[in-house]
Design a protein that fits this description.
The chain has 247 residues and is mostly helical. It has a domain of 101 residues. Helices cover 47% and strands 7% of the residues. It contains eight helices and five strands, in the order H-H-H-E-E-H-E-H-E-H-H-H-E. The strands form two sheets. It has a three-stranded parallel β-sheet with strand order 3-4-5, covered by helices on one side. The protein has a two-stranded antiparallel sheet with strand order 1-2. Strand 1 and strand 2 form a beta hairpin.
């Protein structure tokens, strides 16, 4: 697919040229068990991301695989539900990516993942500060509303509409429960990135036998327990809740 039609300054900002193909399809290859694993294809990443992966791997002293996978998960969560593909009618897929880094203790997994997830967390911190400011404005508007409401009551007039509490825009959550995640996703339908420090925590999320609330389960039919929990996130459906990536 051609990149024609996309402004050249945007393309060159991510290291692309207008005459380059928009994407390449890599065919599956079978490697003998005794052969060395192929290197992570950093060249397939956008140039700024490839540079981040390669330089972070050199600085940390680890293979680029964990950093590259973490970057893909972060990029997928940034797209979220804002764009989906439709292979055929009634079948859509979002950019949600599920990734897991598996290595022995001391192999610098945490540092490798943080090389890209820290960027998302910095954005989360900025959004939190903006939300705190919005709450201060909301508190002032609430006080003003109470004065206006009482004054309207004295004059026999209908009360003005109350101020609307601002919602918190989120992009990154860590080690949360599904019950706590659901209201976050309802307020952020584009999706968020869910990071787990330990893979076992993600597994336990689906093996928890506590039923989901009826209001939540109704949105996916009569499902209950682990199956319902998995269906809430596996396909990143907008009519279920939203999408989020794992790393």
């Amino acid at each position: 697919m051609s990149l024609q039609g996309i402004p050249w300054d945007i393309l060159r900002g991510v290291g692309l040229e207008p005459d380059e193909p928009r994407y390449d399809v890599t065919t599956f290859r079978r490697f003998p068990v005794k052969d060395a694993a192929p290197g992570f294809p950093t060249s397939a990443l956008p140039k700024p991301v490839a540079r981040l992966v390669e330089e972070s791997a050199a600085a940390i002293g680890c293979p680029p695989d964990a950093i590259g996978l973490s970057a893909l998960v972060a990029l997928g969560s940034a797209i979220g539900n804002s764009r989906v593909i439709q292979p055929k009618k009634g079948w859509t897929e979002s950019a949600a990516i599920y990734g897991a880094v598996i290595a022995d203790s001391g192999e610098k997994k945490t540092a490798a993942i943080a090389a890209t997830t820290d960027v998302v967390q910095n954005l989360e911190n900025t959004l939190n500060r903006e939300h705190d400011k919005s709450l201060e404005v909301f508190a002032r508007e609430e006080r003003e509303y109470e004065v206006e409401r009482k004054e309207a009551a004295k004059q026999g007039l209908p009360a003005p509409p109350p101020p609307r509490r601002p919602t918190a825009e989120r992009v990154h959550v860590n080690d949360t429960t599904l019950e706590a995640l659901i209201p976050i996703l309802k307020e952020n339908p584009r999706g968020v990135m869910l990071e787990r420090d330990e893979l076992v925590g993600w597994v336990k999320l689906w093996t928890n036998t506590k039923p989901v609330a009826k209001a939540q389960s109704d949105s996916i039919g009569s499902q209950r327990g682990p199956t319902a929990r998995y269906l809430l996130t596996a396909r990143a459906r907008m009519d279920l809740l939203a999408s989020f990536g794992h790393s």
